[in-house]
Amino acid sequence: MKAIRRLINTLREGIKGIWKHRQLGLVSVTSTFFTLFVIGIIIIITVSINSMALQVQGKVNDVEIFIKNGSTEIQIEELRHKIENDGIEKTVKFRSSEEALKLMKDSWGENSELLENIQSDGLLPASFVVQLSDISQAEKFVKSLDGEPIIEDVNYYKDLVNQVYKLSNYSKIFGSILVLVLIFVSLFVISNTIKLTVVSRAHEIGVMKNVGATNNYIRIPFIIEGVFYSVFASALSFLAVYYLYDFIYTKFGVKIIENFSIINLIKPELLKTSLLQIFLSLGFGIGVLGSIFSIRKYLIDREVKYVK
User: Fold this and answer.
1) Hey, which of 152, 175, 268, 306 would disulfide with 66, CB 3.0 to 4.6 Å?
2) Coil, strand or helix: which one is 307?
3) Domains, the chain, ranges and CATH?
4) pTM here?
């Protein structure tokens, strides 16, 4: 019963602190809101760029290895064995001359009848179509085939692959750095807000410690206060980011996708749950850590440090 009463008193003190310091809290919520709002925008941009990069990679990660006419079946099988057993994850498909011609006819559509009397022998070379799981391995894979006598040519989108891979990596690195910086800004804002409330109650904290109050009994109300401010700000930020993205997607997204097939915007509803979890987790973590950092210097071995 004593523990329950202590918990109730602690929660009551936390709620009283929220109301008592509501003006400081409003400043904290506003600052944290804008910081988390920017974080949310960065997250959506980074996710969209990575999604676009994955889509592009899925379209250009085919490496086609053309085989010289006159190559024997044994030579072709030896090449297949080398391709399949080089340690790079991939799928390998053999395309015969006949299949290559059929694909060519299909691509010609209504004009394919012009190719009806053309024989496949020697017209188009047979090839291995290799789909790499990791497109960044393309250059390494192609280099491993240097010197193979039956290879006529190797075709893949080298420059585009490299650019897409770099874009994806740069967006992850740049986005992560910005998010970390903004998280530290949020921690600073919450920490200073709680620090001001601690300073205003320094004498009260000293009295509580002199009568035997534990550090946790003193600390928890401030943590409740900090968590409330940051979680409230994160909830507002989530709503602002989500509905802004939903508006942009509804207004412009469909047209962008229709005109630029390479761009793959993620539907807002697919992001909703994950985005909410990220915002609430950030809000809770920032609130707890910011509050702990701000009050810890006042709770050292039952001594209170007053700010002069």
Assistant:
1) 152
2) coil
3) 1-57+162-301 (no CATH), 61-156 (3.30.70.3040)
4) 0.64
User: Residue 305: its pLDDT value, please?
Assistant: 45
Q: How far apart are CA 301 and CA 294, in angstroms?
A: 16
Q: What is the DSSP string of 55-89?
A: HHHHHH-EEEEEEPTT--HHHHHHHHHHHHTSS--
Give the tens place of pLDDT for each residue, 207-232.
767 777 677 777 788 788 888 888 99
Tell me the HSE value of 181 on the side-chain side, using a 13 A CA sphere.
Answer: 8
Tokens of 226: 């900090």
Gap between the Cα atoms of 198 and 13, Å rounded: 13
- Could you tell me which of 224, 226, 303, 306 has the C-alpha nearest to residue 14? 224
- The sign of the torsion formed by the CA atoms of 210, 211, 212, 215 equals negative
pLDDT score of 302 more than 50: no
> 16-49: string of b/e by CB count within 10 Å (b at 16+)?
ebbeebeebbebbbebbbbbbbbbbbbbbebbbb
Q: Are 284 and 36 in contact (CB under 8 A)?
A: no
Q: CA-CA distance, 88 to 135, in Å (whole number)?
A: 10
* Buried/exposed 176-202: b ≥16 CB within 10 Å, e otherwise: eebbeebbebbbbbbbbbbbbbbeebe
